[in-house]
Specification:
It is globular and about 45 Å long. Helix 1 packs parallel to helix 2. A four-stranded mixed beta sheet has the order 1-2-8-5, covered by helices on one side. Strands 3-4 form a two-stranded antiparallel sheet. 18% of the residues lie in helices and 22% in strands. By secondary structure, the protein is an alpha+beta fold. The longest helix has 12 residues.
Length: 137
């Protein structure tokens, strides 16, 4: 679970991305509030080319061949959220769910924020079955 502060120093950002790159790539689930709103996940592009944090993050995710599953905005662009999640569905996609290809994720359900949060909740299932391996002798 990751929380990346929006004002994280470049040194700490680099350290975070190095740690992400060092994660084992098999059966990996990585999720959290990454505070990187300048990434268009549908096209896998960065809207602000001067945002080196976003570019470095995409590189780290690509290095691990991770799949990003969140397709809707997760944070309201306004100071007050409606209970219908976001009426205009405008906002930023900051809360992300990544998995390795071997962990298929079921349909995501976007739920209203808790209390006064600007972030919605996301409910999802991972379809995973552990195959037992018998040792041959």
């Amino acid at each position: 679970l990751v929380y990346r502060h929006p004002n994280l120093s470049i040194e700490s950002t680099i350290l975070l991305y190095e740690r992400i790159r060092s994660l084992p790539g098999r059966n990996l689930l990585l999720m959290g509030d990454f505070n990187l709103g300048g990434i268009d996940w549908a096209s896998h592009t960065i809207s602000d080319i001067s945002n080196s944090s976003a570019e470095e993050f995409l590189d780290a995710i690509d290095d691990l061949f991770l799949v990003q599953h969140v397709t809707e905005p997760t944070r309201s662009g306004t100071s007050s959220c409606s209970t219908s999640i976001f009426k205009d569905r405008e906002g930023s996609t900051l809360d992300l769910i990544f998995t390795s290809i071997s962990l298929p994720v079921g349909e995501l359900e976007y739920l209203p924020p808790l209390n006064r949060s600007h972030h919605i909740m996301i409910h999802f299932n991972i379809r995973y079955s552990k195959q037992s391996k018998l040792a041959k002798r």
